[in-house]
């Protein structure tokens, strides 16, 4: 079967889509790089974190079905988990697969009757047990690998629908994830990104996240380990020491979703920290690990957010060592505590205005950070070439472009002199 996989949403969804691809390839199916007339099955790995994310997924479903009316459509991921039945209306040949069974997508596809129009929903309850995933890779690969180590969350933040869609926090079997990493590195991967919903609370028996980093660090051929987004308050001193250690493979980069600079809003959100602790932590980390890359997510328009609360977020972004922020708007989600705070919703236009102001601050902070990199020599892990040259990322997750290289830089880590700030990326020379 020829299968196209389209991924929406977070890094964990990307990790899971890669798992689907490897599972299907190991059974002899072919993965198409783009949707075309020869595709038998399109899998859409969906997202439902915001209303906007949902509507983008639905748009993808419509586009696929309009252009390829005979394709078998598989919808999996968070939208399939949240609201499976209305998805049947999108197509006459459709399989809707909830999150509990998504890792068995290859089984379900092979079992599905391909000969006729049929629709099916597979929606089972999500368990609480730790998990293992088979490593099914049987071809060379390269670059960065999102390694799934954790799933679900118990924190119960007031705005967040993720615990409902992905279940309670659970961790991947320690030996199983190390084996998976080792196979991918042996096949060519240079960087592993530890991925989950709440990776900081990883635990399998006595093993925690620092143990995962230490064990992966011993894999020969692996150059870098990176943490994906990690919750404030879950990053132990041991991890910071690993990051500060010049011998460690753990890169100097932290993305912590702080969400708001206002204590009042953090409390309403059910976040587990006050903003003074965040300021202290960011300043301490910047001192302990000079040059560390620091990013965050900030939500705009949580119910009841006043102008003063918004200013607190702006002060945090402007005044702290944070170098950029992903800004997103509050989106009411059914089944969350914040959904009931309807009376305090912030006007949509005002949310748009505040978001633009914060984005401008983030762009300027990031520009300043890039400016500080100019003149330095950094190691860059290069990816497949684009039209303008070879692009890649430094340890600090700065994008670097090398134009006109006579050499094939794909999947190489090379020292690059950073010569020019282009606003969102840097130009470099080998
Ligand atoms: S920590 Fe909060 S925001 Fe993050 S996934 Fe868990 S409940 Fe959602």
The largest sheet, given as strand count, sense and whether it forms a barrel, is: 6 strands, parallel
Query: Strand arrangement, largest sheet?
Result: 2-1-3-4-5-6
Number of strands: 21
Distance between the termini: 43 Å
C-alpha Rg (nearest Å): 22 Å
The distinct ligands, each listed once, are:
iron/sulfur cluster
Q: How much of the polypeptide forms β-strand, as a percent range?
A: 15-25%
- CATH architecture assignment name of the largest domain: 3-Layer(aba) Sandwich
Ranges with pLDDT <50 over ≥5 residues? none
Number of domain units = 4
- Give the proportion of residues in helices: 25-40%
In oligomeric terms, what are we looking at? single chain
Structural class: alpha/beta
CATH topology (fold) name of the largest domain: Rossmann fold
CATH class of the largest domain: Alpha Beta
CATH-assigned homologous superfamily of the largest domain: Methylthiotransferase, N-terminal domain
Overall pLDDT, averaged? Answer: 95
The shape, in one word, is globular
- Count of helical segments? 13
């Amino acid at each position: 079967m020829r299968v196209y996989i389209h991924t929406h949403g977070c890094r964990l969804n990307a990790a899971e889509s890669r798992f689907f691809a490897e599972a299907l390839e190991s059974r002899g199916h072919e993965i198409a790089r783009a949707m075309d007339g020869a595709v038998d099955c399109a899998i859409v790995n969906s997202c439902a974190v915001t209303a906007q994310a949902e509507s983008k997924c639905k748009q993808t479903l419509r586009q696929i079905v309009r252009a390829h009316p005979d394709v078998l459509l598989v919808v999996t991921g968070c939208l399939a988990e949240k609201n499976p039945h209305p998805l049947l209306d999108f197509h006459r040949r459709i399989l809707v697969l909830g999150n509990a069974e998504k890792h068995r997508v290859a089984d379900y596809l092979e079992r599905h009757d391909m000969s006729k129009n049929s629709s099916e929903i597979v929606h089972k309850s999500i368990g609480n047990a730790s998990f293992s995933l088979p490593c099914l890779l049987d071809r060379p690969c390269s670059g960065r690998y999102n390694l799934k180590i954790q799933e679900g969350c118990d924190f119960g933040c007031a705005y967040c629908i993720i615990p409902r869609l992905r279940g309670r926090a659970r961790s991947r079997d320690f030996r199983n994830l190390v084996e998976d990493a080792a196979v991918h590195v042996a096949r060519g991967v240079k960087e592993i990104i530890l991925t989950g919903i709440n990776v900081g609370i990883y635990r399998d028996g006595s093993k925690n996240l620092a143990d995962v980093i230490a064990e992966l660090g011993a894999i020969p051929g692996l150059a870098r380990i990176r943490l994906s987004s990690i919750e404030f308050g879950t990053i132990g001193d041991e991890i910071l020491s690993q990051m500060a250690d010049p011998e460690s493979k753990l890169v100097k980069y932290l993305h912590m979703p702080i969400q708001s600079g206002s204590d009042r809003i953090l409390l309403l959100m059910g976040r587990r920290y006050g903003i003074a602790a965040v300021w202290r932590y960011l300043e301490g980390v910047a001192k302990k690990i000079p040059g560390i890359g620091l990013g965050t997510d900030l939500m705009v328009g949580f119910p009841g957010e006043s102008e003063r609360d918004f200013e607190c977020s702006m002060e945090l972004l402007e005044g702290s060592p944070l170098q950029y922020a992903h800004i997103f708007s509050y989106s009411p989600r059914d089944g969350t505590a914040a959904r009931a705070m309807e009376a305090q919703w912030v006007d949509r236009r005002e949310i748009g205005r505040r978001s633009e102001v914060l984005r401008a601050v983030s762009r300027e902070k990031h520009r300043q950070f890039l400016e500080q990199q100019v003149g330095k020599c950094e190691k860059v892990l290069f990816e497949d070439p684009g039209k303008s040259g070879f692009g890649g990322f430094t340890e600090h997750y700065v994008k670097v472009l090398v134009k006109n290289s006579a050499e094939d830089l794909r999947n190489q880590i090379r020292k690059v002199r950073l010569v020019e700030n282009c606003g969102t990326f840097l130009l470099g020379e080998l």
